[in-house]
Specification:
104 residues, alpha+beta, 3-stranded antiparallel beta sheet
């Protein structure tokens, strides 16, 4: 099962010797834009050009900075449903770690 995660990456769950799931990180940085758009749509988001839309069709804003997030500078992280999409800025990452750091 693939789960979205940080820094333009995805992770798949792999089992440890104790039966716990451990994330395996896979980069999306070099993924084609069409793949990223398809992934966002599968997660319930929309896309208009390069801008990400909320599941209700509104412009998606980074929860930390209030900046519109584009397909080119997005990161996808677990924490909510649908998964959180952030701008790849240090401020957004710091906000995420402060709010959801226990996920990792």
């Amino acid at each position: 099962m693939w789960l979205p995660v940080a820094l333009g990456v995805m992770m798949s769950a792999t089992s440890t010797s104790r039966g716990h799931e451990r994330p395996r990180i896979v980069s999306l940085r070099e993924a084609p834009k069409a793949f990223k758009v398809a992934l966002l749509k599968e997660l319930g988001y929309g896309v208009d050009g390069n801008r990400i839309l909320t599941p209700t069709g509104e412009k998606y804003l980074d929860p930390a900075s209030g900046v519109a997030v584009s397909v080119d500078n997005m990161i996808i992280l677990p924490g909510e449903s649908p998964p959180i999409v952030l701008d790849d800025s240090p401020m957004s990452l710091a906000w995420y770690v402060g709010k959801y750091g226990d996920i990792f």
